Amino acid sequence: MDNCIFCKIIKGEIPSAKIYEDDEVLAILDISQATRGHTLVISKEHHPNFLATPKEIMHKVMDVAQRIGQAQMAVLGAKGINILTNVGEEAGQTIMHYHVHVVPRYTRDTGFQITLKENNSDKNNLPALADQIKSKL
Ligand code: AMP
Ligand code: ZN
Q: Does residue 117 or residue 21 have the better pLDDT?
């Protein structure tokens, strides 16, 4: 994709701090560094997001995300890790090329926060909601 930042990084047209590379996957440090070591694991093929990525490639990206997380725990002294992939602008996705954030955590409240709040009236009828999702599996 001509105007995709990650495709340009993969082609070497934009510099990046590389951590890992193979034929299908590239891992680089996120330029924003939400926490120290914040890494992006990116599929080399352009796919718009997690849901639109062929399963084999999605699995390969997740394999590398696991390895990066293990390395962050081992060498950076991280106490925890958040694995995050945004799908769609409403979910906060800004670069429409599949990638997974691996965010090392040192304390609970710095750099990165996700809060899951109760905010849905369907919670009073979960079986119906479950049936609705199940119908498309
Ligand atoms: P998302 O919001 O999930 O689409 O994440 C996109 C991420 O890409 C953000 O965390 C940005 O900081 C990061 N990013 C944008 N441009 C670059 C770049 N040139 N090198 C590394 N990371 C980048
Ligand atoms: Zn791309």
A: 21
Q: H or E stretch including 25?
A: strand 25-29
Q: What is the pLDDT of residue 7?
A: 98
- Atom 16 (ligand 1) nearest CA: 31
Residue numbers of the domain that contains 126: 5-134
pLDDT tens, position by position, 51-88: 999 999 999 999 999 999 999 999 999 999 999 999 99
C-alpha 63 to ligand 1 mean position (Å): 20
99 is catalytic: yes
Lining ligand 1 with CB less than 6 A are 5, 14, 16, 28, 30-32, 40, 86, 92-95
What is the residue-wise DSSP string for 47-106?
Answer: -SSGGGS-HHHHHHHHHHHHHHHHHHHHHS--SEEEEE---SGGGT--S-S-EEEEEEES
109 pLDDT above the threshold of 90: no
Tally the domains of the chain.
1
Q: What is the CATH number of the domain that holds 74?
A: 3.30.428.10
Which atom of ligand 1 is found nearest the CA of 101?
3
